[in-house]
Amino acid sequence: MSYDMNNVFAKILRKEIPCKSIYEDEYVLAFYDINPKAKVHALVVVKGAYTDFSDLISHATATEIQGFLRGILATVDALKLGQDGYRLVMNTGKNSGQEVPHLHAHILGGEPLGTAL
Ligand code: AMP
Predict the structure, then answer these.
(1) What residue owns the CA closest to ligand 1's atom 18?
(2) pLDDT 10s digits, 50-109
(3) pTM (2 decimals)?
(4) Which helix (H) or strand (E) element contains residue 116?
(5) Of residues 26, 18, 96, the one with CA closest to residue 61
(6) Residues with catalytic annotation?
(7) Does any ligand 1 atom lie closer than 6 A to the CB of residue 89?
């Protein structure tokens, strides 16, 4: 899948669309999902132009990959979800139902989430 510069998360990264920010560093921007599926539902968006997890792992530098993963944990810490736990989801491609073609991790928590699968 080629990268679409006009996807909604690219616009949020360029500050063309607002978001409710939680955490930001050189590699990620994290903000609240506009349509939350749990009491706490955050999105961690990588700053590089990668469509999904496969694209990141195949083409990003080790530093970018590490930055993305550490950005997820920094967001978990900012939300104070570490103690009670949380769920990470990364939809990838058509069969997953991925809506926004820019790599992001969902962090869900703040309440018991039930069994995942
Ligand atoms: P996915 O299906 O993994 O691509 O998830 C995309 C997520 O982005 C959905 O949970 C949407 O609710 C969320 N979303 C779409 N537009 C926005 C926006 N402008 N601000 C925050 N979250 C958004």
Answers:
(1) 34
(2) 999 999 999 999 999 999 999 999 999 999 999 999 999 999 999 999 999 999 999 999
(3) 0.98
(4) none
(5) 26
(6) 104
(7) no
